[in-house]
Inverse folding.
């Protein structure tokens, strides 16, 4: 990768914005995923802030840079009274992603940098988006459940703070670690549908909020980020491990898809799915309750047997399967699952938008290219 420019960030951090084609690398046959040339199995043990910095600025931060970046995020986490008032007016009977995109659009109108397209202005907007989206999701959830919003705690990590704002009490160390890893595993995945949407919007030199809202709208669909919510709902519907095999067989006989399986790029195990499976098992063991995990394993074994072994189709668990199981253990309702995906993914969208802004070229495919999708 080539270093394109250095700039002083007026939020107080000196950052280097690195132009790179290698924001993400996927080998779908070998099941390899890298962000900025670093394997996901290494990245998953870092703080989310470090991975967010890596994606957006091109290199892993040093200790000082990480402290400054995290301090910038902490400084921008709170949302004001008007945002809380608008959340009160949202519809709590539908998926939280609807409220999230509405609120992101609402706050964009009051961002003093909305039309500052300089790298510094874009970086300030990026930090606000990454910092505020978890607060919006947690605040929405609390208000929807008749509870007072919980202000962010600057002593906590991105993941721990989100769970704290959601529940009003600090999570266990394991839950905090798993939430942090969830955000990292969800942070980036090359030209997936939502990132492509964000890039298209950025390619017109529209502002960063608009590009992120495009990503949110696209992430919502059940064939993309919406699958996670459907996995949690599916596990609930199956209810007992002994129901799982017949549930899968019934769906497959009706040619219905099993949510959380299959991928356009991976034709083997999705490395994020493998990490999520280990985390789901760890969480189930720590809680002394293997129930939901056992259901998931029967679903997985049945899909592998029926589709991979019998039919030779490369349909393996994807990023959404065991993460959906984890949400069940963490009491995260399906209505929040896609928004939580967005909390992690926003860093990836922004990394791609910055890359696109540097290109100054509109994305304008021809219609015949759709035949290949
Ligand atoms: N369950 C059962 N069969 C499946 C599944 C599944 N989850 N996924 C694909 N297939 C079958 C499909 O029926 C088709 O069979 P046939 O060739 O006999 O018609 C074949 O596999 C190819 O399917 P496709 O839909 O053409 O494959 P695709 O590469 O276009 O789609 C996908 C990829 C992710 C949209 C698809 O696998 C799917 O719909 N999965 C379920 C939804 C899901 O979990 N989405 C999350 C995707 S990963 C995270 C993300 O990108 O956001």
């Amino acid at each position: 990768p080539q270093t394109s420019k250095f700039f002083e960030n007026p939020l107080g951090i000196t950052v280097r914005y690195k132009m790179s084609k290698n924001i993400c690398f996927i080998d779908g046959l070998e099941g390899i995923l890298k962000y900025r040339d670093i394997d996901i199995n290494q990245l998953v043990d870092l703080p989310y802030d470090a991975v967010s910095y890596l994606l957006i600025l091109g290199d892993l931060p040093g200790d000082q840079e990480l402290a400054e970046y995290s301090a910038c995020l902490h400084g921008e986490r709170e949302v004001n009274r008007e945002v809380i008032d608008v959340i009160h007016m949202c519809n709590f009977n539908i998926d939280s992603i609807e409220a999230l995109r509405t609120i992101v659009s609402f706050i964009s109108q009051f961002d003093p940098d909305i039309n500052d397209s300089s790298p510094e202005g874009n970086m300030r907007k990026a930090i606000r988006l990454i910092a505020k989206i978890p607060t919006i999701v947690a605040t929405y959830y609390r208000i929807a459940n008749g509870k007072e919003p919980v202000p962010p705690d600057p002593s906590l990590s991105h993941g721990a703070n989100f769970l704290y704002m959601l529940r009003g009490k600090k999570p266990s160390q394991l839950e905090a670690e798993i939430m942090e890893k969830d955000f990292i595993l969800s942070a980036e995945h090359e030209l997936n549908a939502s990132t492509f949407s964000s890039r298209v919007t950025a390619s017109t030199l529209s502002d960063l909020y608009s590009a992120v809202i495009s990503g949110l709208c696209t992430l919502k669909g059940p064939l993309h980020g919406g699958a996670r919510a459907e996995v949690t709902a599916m596990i609930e519907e199956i209810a007992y491990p002994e129901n799982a095999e017949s549930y899968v067989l019934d769906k497959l006989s009706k040619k219905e898809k099993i949510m959380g399986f299959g991928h356009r790029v991976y034709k083997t195990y999705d490395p994020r799915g493998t990490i999520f499976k280990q985390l789901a098992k760890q969480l189930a063991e720590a809680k002394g309750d293997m129930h939901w995990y056992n259901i998931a394993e029967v679903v997985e074994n049945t899909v592998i047997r029926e589709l991979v072994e019998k039919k030779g189709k490369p349909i393996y668990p994807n990023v959404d399967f065991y993460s959906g199981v984890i949400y069940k253990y963490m009491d995260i309702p399906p209505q929040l699952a896609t928004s939580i995906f967005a909390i992690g993914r926003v860093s990836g969208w922004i990394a791609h938008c910055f890359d696109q802004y540097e290109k100054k070229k509109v994305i304008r495919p021809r219609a015949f290219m759709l035949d290949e999708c």
